[in-house]
Every structure is written in C-alpha cells, then in structure tokens.
Amino acid sequence: MTWILPRRWRNAFMLAVSLAFYAMWRPLCSVFLLWIAGVSYAGGLLATKCGKRRQAGLAACLALMLLPLAFYKFIAPADAIVLAALHACGLGLDFNGLNWMIPAGLSIYTLQAVGYVADVARGKVPREQSLLNHALYLSFFPTVLSGPINRSFDLMPQFREHRLGFDKTLAGSGARLVVWGMFLKVAVADRFGIYTSSVFGHAMSHNGFSLLFAQVCYLFQMYCDFAGYSYIAQGCGRLLGIDLKANFSQPLFAMGAGEFWHRWHMALSGWLRDHVYIRLGGSRCSKWRTCFNIMVTFVASGCWHGGTVCYVAWGLVNGVLVTLSHALPLKQWRRHVPARVAVTAVTLVLMAMNLTFFQPNYIQIFTRLFTAPFNAFHIMLPAYSVHATSVMCYMAFTFVVVMLRDVQAEWQVLKLPRPVSLAGYGVVVILILLIGVIDSGQFIYVKF
Hints:
- By secondary structure, the protein is an all-alpha fold.
- Helices cover 68% and strands 0% of the residues.
- The chain contains 18 helices and no strands.
- The protein starts with 6 loop residues before the first helix and ends in a 13-residue tail after the last helix.
- The relative contact order is 0.10.
- The model has no long low-confidence stretch (mean pLDDT 85).
C-alpha cells in the first residue's frame, strides 16, 4: 500500500499505520507515545536556541520525557512493598496496581527521544523540521514495541528522503530477514523456552549440572528470541524502503564480556556508550575512573531493564565482567584456537549464569546451583513430551542450524549460489510450519 501512494503521502500513511498498530496494544498508552513525541520535538527546538534559559529548558524537557519511564520502572517494586506492608499489618488486601497499564515500548521510544534531543543539543544532527517525521521516527511500527533503539542520524535522513520506488534488492533481503527471524522465534526460541521454563520452574528437582545447562539454553533462547524480533523489524523496514541497523553480530562467538556487549543488543550498547559512558569520560581517564564509568553504565542498563534489585545486580555483574575482560590479554589468546574456544565458552557460561537474574525465582536457582552436586545429568520435560532423546535431538538440530548460519555470517565460509540460498529459505519456511510454536505469545523483550 505504501508504494502505491504518492511520495509526499507515504510518511503520513506509515505514521497512521504505526499509531494504529501501537493503539491496538493498549489504546490508552498511546497518550504516552504522543507525549514523548511532543516534548522531544519541543526539546529539539530549544536545543537550537541560545541564551541563559536554554540549559534549564533542556533539563526540563529531559525530565518530562524520563518521568513516565522512571515512574513505571519502579511501580512493580513499590506495589510489592505496599502489599507486604498490608499483609504485615494483618490486612489481607490485594490489588493489581498500575502494572496492567505499563505502556509497551516505553523504554524504547523514550531513549530514542532523549538521544535525539541530546544529539541536536551537541550539534551531531540537525533539528527535525517536520513534526510528522519526528513522530514517525519514534513510533515506526516495526521497532516501537521491542526495538531496536533507532538513532536519529540513521533513521531521520531516510524519512526525509522521498523514496523513488520499490527496491527489489532491498525488499528481497528484507523478506529473507523476516523468514529467518520467524524461524529463530517460533521454531527455536519458543521450543527452547518449553525446556528452560520446565527446569527453572522446578529448580529444586535438578542438580547443578542440569541447572547450568538450562542457563546456557536460556541464553541461546534469549538470543534467538530477541535477534528474531530484530531481524523481523529490520526486514519489515527494508520492505518499506527503510534500512534499519543490525542489532546483533554473532554474540555467541565473543571472547570476553566486553566483546559480547559489542555484539549483543548493539543498539542499546551504542546508546549507553554515547550518552552515558563517554559523557562520564569513557576510557580517557585513569584506570579506576574508567572502571567506575563502566560500572555506572551497566547499572544504568540494569535500571533500564527494570527497577528491582535483580536488574541492578545483573547490571553490576555485567560491569564487573566487562572490567575483568579489559584487564585480560584477550588479543594474544585470540591467535590460538584452543585458547579462543576456551575463553568463548567461559564467556557464554558466565553471561548465561548472569541472565538467571531475569528469572522470578533467581535466588532459588542460584542457591540450588551452588549447593546441588554436579553429578548425573537429567532433565525434566513438559507433561506432553514423549521421550527425552527426541527433545534433546531437536534442540541440538536447531542449535546446529543457527550456529551454521552464524558461522557463515562471521567468516563467509561458503559463497552459495542464489538458487541454493533461496531453496534454503524455502526449507526454513517448511520448518516454521512443521515445528514452530505458532501460538507462543509475545517476545521476551516486550516486557522491558
């Protein structure tokens, strides 16, 4: 439909579709999206002004944009504290609080808006003249719910340009990304999710090795789930003539936590680098100050994910792991294949263990992990699973498929002819239809 319209109406049509798409999620929460769009547009105007009141106006705009995010990120722990206090007083009251109306994607478009105002204030990007284009930048439907976080210097110029016509090459690559993203989500992540949820839900029934294996599987599940959404968003964008930046770059091959975060959720990592880490001084300081900057950056990342203690702890552990990775001679180890494999394996295990903080019963899982023996390995399967061997074989098969594609993307091992590549995507479509969990529910990152 977009390509049928005259060029001057295409952005208006995409904005209408994006707002309608967001309103389908929770209509009332569209007020927050429009609020952030209006305040950030005004912030862009203020950023180009001169005078004594400029800094105060920008600070007020940033506060108004961050207020809804800060409010909702701390609603869940506040509700828990109030409920605990009521029960301690002998009042058996219960209420849902405001968690039911937390705006989807609030974390995403708030960071986009703050980044836009900051970039305009620093002269990195020009102020957007069109309110329509600015609103589309924040509400673009492929990314508004779960990202990736778009940067104004990447996306705004594409909205300003009048796309001449349908680009077959760009659309073809977009369709392939959508297919691969769907496979990662419904045929891999959701299948792994059946296993990991059964283990974490009965953590006390498993030994240490079984829990550790489930943690690694959860890392792989999270990767396929979030990378799958990112590929779908990137593919939808290309079908509309918009080239979104990649959000993942084979993070399972990372050596050290520092490189892992250069490859994982690159949109968030880049935003935090530019607007938190570098603003604190980055690595242009003493070693101790650099370590402090890293820790603050990852604590901010944890608070962005959620306002509870577990997310702050997750951020602190990430900061420690990244700091340690900077102190190790990883460049020397990279030259030796056995050392590289060993460091990569240790990195993945540590990052997988840290993701346990995302589980509601993370204290129970950690307690069992470090107190249970690492002896015989067993798994707990869902009630409708027939045989453990078939489940493990399926997980191994999909893992190999994903890793083969990542190996190809990382090192370009083979140059496949176009017919072979298209046939491969046809097989992927068949696998989605045969083994995909079609009614699996939302993506994991929607809740963040």
